[in-house]
Design goal:
Immunoglobulin-like, about 150 residues, mainly beta, four-stranded antiparallel beta sheet, 1 helix
């Protein structure tokens, strides 16, 4: 067994120890980078389209401001890049003070989502609802302008 001897110079410093620390730090950083690189990411892309939708508005007045309340019902079909349906994707619509979330998509890749109570504030004539779709093994899909709400 070989014993390491550390020699001291005239100033009382230990020689060789800082080099060992630098080598250990470099190896540790390389191992951490390799582990981070091996973490699986959602690599498949998702395609979503609104296959059927309706927006119904109800108008009324409170005080001196008029408002419109909307009920949004949308059917969304999700496919991967090979046009195969994606099962288990969760669809979320948000915007216009309304938020709705679907049950997971079925084996046909279709989900229906309904948002009741979406509305436009005073002096706002139109607003978009954002659609977000998440599925395991796929990159998240977002469409900031999925549904347009407007005063009629």
């Amino acid at each position: 067994m070989k014993i390491l001897h550390f020699f001291k110079n005239e100033k009382g410093q230990v020689l060789g120890l800082p080099i060992y620390l630098i080598v250990i730090i470099i190896v540790a950083v390389a191992v951490i980078a390799a582990v981070i690189f091996m973490i699986p990411r959602g690599s498949q892309t998702m395609i979503a389209q609104i296959t059927d939708g309706s927006v119904q508005s109800a108008s009324g007045a409170t005080g001196e401001y008029s408002y419109s309340s909307f009920t949004v019902t949308v059917e969304i079909k999700t496919n991967d890049d090979r046009q195969d349906p994606i099962e288990g994707a969760v669809v979320r619509l948000s915007g216009g003070h309304g938020i709705g979330e679907s049950d997971p998509t079925g084996s046909n890749g279709i989900a229906t989502i309904s948002v009741t109570g979406a509305k436009l504030d005073a002096n706002i004539n139109e607003a978009y609802m954002k659609m977000t779709i998440k599925a395991s093994g796929y990159e998240d899909f977002e469409d900031d302008e999925a549904v347009l709400l407007y005063r009629g």
